[in-house]
Amino acid sequence: KFTVDWDVESASKGGYDYFMLKEIHEQPTAIRETLLRRLDENGKIKLDDIKLTKEDLEKITKVYIVACGTAYNAGLIGRYAIEKFAQIPVEPDIASEFRYREPFIDQNTLLIVISQSGETLDTLAAIREAKRKGARILSITNVVGSSVARESDDVFYTWAGPEVAVASTKAYTTQITALYMIALDLALTKGTITEEFYFDTINKMKELPEKVERILENAEDIKKIAEDIKDSQSAFYLGRGLDYQTAMEGALKLKEISYIHTEAFAAGELKHGTIALIEDGTPVIAIAGQESLYEKMLSNIQEVKARGAYVISIAKESKKEIEAQSDRVIYVPDVDDILAPVLTAVPTQLIAYYTSLIKGNDVDKPRNLAKSVTVE
Amino acid sequence: KFTVDWDVESASKGGYDYFMLKEIHEQPTAIRETLLRRLDENGKIKLDDIKLTKEDLEKITKVYIVACGTAYNAGLIGRYAIEKFAQIPVEPDIASEFRYREPFIDQNTLLIVISQSGETLDTLAAIREAKRKGARILSITNVVGSSVARESDDVFYTWAGPEVAVASTKAYTTQITALYMIALDLALTKGTITEEFYFDTINKMKELPEKVERILENAEDIKKIAEDIKDSQSAFYLGRGLDYQTAMEGALKLKEISYIHTEAFAAGELKHGTIALIEDGTPVIAIAGQESLYEKMLSNIQEVKARGAYVISIAKESKKEIEAQSDRVIYVPDVDDILAPVLTAVPTQLIAYYTSLIKGNDVDKPRNLAKSVTVE
């Protein structure tokens, strides 16, 4: 008797062992779709269903970005982009904190919320609270017709496709893509960037899918790193500026599926306490994706190396001198500082994936966690 | 031959085994001094050397609080107080991040910096950067004539007295005291609080030293908790709102001197990833000092308890029902939510102290750390 060794679930994994790995590999397509579906025939971003006019924008005195978990980490990247491009101060907040904070909200407030599922309860509560006080709500979500989408004034749908693994990957990078586009659109409308910079940045964004592809070609190299860190009790992610936000997401990813207690630090903050935890062999993953902060990062790497840390650096491929300070280096293609988070995130996803896999965990369904958090 | 078993150092410890314990016990005096030396004969806060008039305040459109390490954590409490009392939005930032962020600074910006030593290099650099752009600088420091004090427009000196232990304790609680006073003064000047509320809050602050004293009377009880957690690799602090900020400081304290990897979470954020780390016996220290968030905290405690966590709760003494959810409870005297951080911090200091002591660490001089960080 002949039996076929597959079921519906494994078939839908498209040959990958886990949904998470499949979804990591779907990122080039997901980012491309999220970007291209919002470009018109002139290559301009069309947020036509997002009806923020120049007049609307001039009235906005306060922008909040509110989300939970990975979506919050994406929001931190978005904050930088909006502040840098559009020169609008943005306050990021965790939804479960924002709800109870008595935030400064009125009719001149723009609330950007991010939720993959569009059903995150704390995020929904934040929307309702802000709406009651007159704020305008722009949501970024992956699920058409979700509660978040329905309750928002404007919606930017990411085109990530269904995300099944609890640990979010393609939702994260497409949320960042969406935030860059919103930032560029706001900035052009406000006149804080030139058309030249606008189109130049869009062109650089168009190269992101292929650059992610190049990182993924060497995905299996990261298995070695996973082998090296799998028995650690603790690990640290370090970064400065945008790299610090990527570090936060990298740490969340590694801890939620490998169960290694991983914490992210602003690299300059380490010497104010946490460096006491660095022992011989403690894994420290240093993200050095910001050209402007590169020298500072190198000294922070030296600090932890001097205390015996096992240093894994994530750097742009033209930055070879980092090898002298690191035990391992994972390179990503060169890219503008502001866009680097889309690339540097990918190795952090792979480190988490392979570490979880090698430890024999259920990668897609980590203990204690649900995909969409619809409880408080 | 008769020898006396003491040296200058141990003598200056005043009978305590370590400076840290001495400094923890000095907090009632330090808080009292910081408060009373700034009250005039009518019981009003006198910030006469801090020359912010109503006109000055009306011009201020942006307030940053910038610091490193423990001082940053104090700043997070100050942020709440200033936002709540004076209705001025405040943006907190880590000095080593702020320096490189291109923050929104002009002549209408007030920069509040906090540094115990007044020599923290990143904080000094932040002052210089902000000054160059025209911001007004108000500093909170413990050292008269320090660089931070000299380079600021206005200075609020804490009266903590010399702090020798690397792990900051009395500097932290006096910095918070200073921030409450600044918040009350700004609020009264702006007219966002009534005189009645102002004096009522000052009167409640006057009771803080004695309430801290009462917590310290039972300090030795915390040895039992230290025994229970000393062999853990990981620990977590949880809190919501102001308790989350206290959790951050508690986690920093525990990790820097006990070398247990301790991380703080906004309690509502736990289910977005970190709860995967909770195993049977994982110590979770839950701060439940906010009346308004108490029920929410109870459910978060139940969540971690259900995953096997060993729960140590820090709660107000009238909140006995928390015992049913907790393995241990440390009570602090009842107090207004906004002032609770001064009290709830004390048990976190004692947990860190006794855990470090029982582990045989050099409590006052943790590995890899310096008291005052004068390098980048």
Strand order of the largest sheet of chain A: 2-1-3-4-5
Low-confidence segments of chain A, given as residue ranges, are: none
User: Helix content range of the residues of chain A, please?
Assistant: 40-55%
Gyration radius from CA atoms of chain A, angstroms: 20 Å
Counting helices, strands and paired strands, the structural category of chain A is alpha/beta
- Total beta strand runs of chain A: 10
Overall pLDDT score of chain A: 93
Q: Could you say which overall geometry of chain A the principal axes of the C-alpha atoms support?
A: globular
Biggest beta sheet attributes of chain A: 5 strands, parallel
Oligomeric description of these chains: homodimer
- Report strand % of chain A: 15-25%
Largest interface (C-beta under 8 Å): A-B, 57 and 57 residues
Ends distance of chain A: 51 Å
Task: Spell the H/E element sequence of chain A.
Answer: HHHHEHEHEHEHEHHHHEHEEHEEH
Helical run tally of chain A? 15
